[in-house]
Automatic annotation (TrEMBL):
Gene that specifies this protein: PARPA_13430.1 scaffold 46804
Gene3D superfamilies (alphabetical): SGNH hydrolase
TM segment ranges: 322-342
Single GO MF descriptor: hydrolase activity, acting on ester bonds
InterPro entries: GDSL (IPR001087), GDSL_lipolytic_enzyme (IPR050592), SGNH_hydro_sf (IPR036514)
Record Pfam families: Lipase_GDSL
Record has Transmembrane helix as a keyword: yes
Keyword Membrane appears in the UniProt entry: yes
Lineage of origin: Eukaryota, Fungi, Fungi incertae sedis, Mucoromycota, Mucoromycotina
Full protein name: Carbohydrate esterase family 16 protein
Domain of life of the source: Eukaryota
UniProt KW keywords: Membrane, Signal, Transmembrane, Transmembrane helix
Amino acid sequence: MRVLDVGNGQRWSNGPLWSEYLALGWNVSLYSFAYSGSVCDNGMYNSIAREDRVPSLKDQLEAYYNLDLDLKPQETVFAFWFGIHDVSEMAKRRGRKEPDYREIADCIGQQLRASRKVFLVDKYLVFNVPPLGHMPYYKDNEISANKSQAAADVNNALEKDVGNLNKHHHALEMDYVDVQSLVRDMAVDPAVFGFGNSNDSFLDTCYEDAQCELKEDDYIWWDETHFTTAFHKTIAKSIIEAESYTTKVTLTAEMEEQLVAVGSKFHSKTYAAPPFKGIVDEKAKQYDIEKSRPIELQQPPLEDDAADFETLLETSTDNGHAYAGLAIFIMLIVGIIVWIKFPNLSLFAWIRNVCNGGSKHRGKFTPVRNDEEDA
């Protein structure tokens, strides 16, 4: 599994991140090119000084391309989680009353398309932006409502784009992970999810308080802007239990011990990501050019074949009613067979399944609750 923007060896939490838990559950190797504080494209923001820039999504994609790891596309899942820092930087823009935060989703969408064309991957996890107004950093700030609305604007555009991509590319399996709804649900009733505090950060309220009754895993927020490992585990469980790409498994304590083992394949190496030079974008353009070229017939149709085809057309016109009746009869027989074999499958569901090429429907996850034994 290949991951973008969850740490790249930087564990801004009190333990493993969601990607490590997910790699463990799927029993796959983790390649993380992510950096905390990254944005989709550094070039979008003049507010980021050149010396303060961390590798962006575009930088990370090119770093992955340059390594040429030779991973099999059919066995690789790309994961994108961007937008939090983009919202912060876009708010610093001057010269307009309110930024158009949909530009962030546009940037992410462009890179989703580029990665698919260059790396020929069809499996994706796309995370949305959590409700920023629930972050301890913004919680008591007068701009918290604006931040939450900005996150919602990004998410609405991103969800629509993911839906359109899935709709127009039947081979694509792109799942939209709804972190925003998960955090909001936890804020309403954290105990249902096995948490004790969903509003404050552990480091600010309990870290140095000997009288504190709550523990690290009782919190959603580790510091003012980052999640605890317990919340990261909840995200991974929601994906695993949705049976996305693999069958459902249960993360046991014995399994989790592998996350701290030296050389574990579930903990990514650290990868450098220098500023991109446009290689991925150029490769994506070459892909579009190749796809737009007309396909030449290797052998023109024979004259006799063409004449036979014209005769067939004339005959089919004369006997149109007969063919129509035959087609209806065949469809009726097929429908009866399907109904007998799949009695619980509605006609509309069957038609939709056929029209979609029989592919599994992809969409956003419904947040799952922690089991009591895992809380």
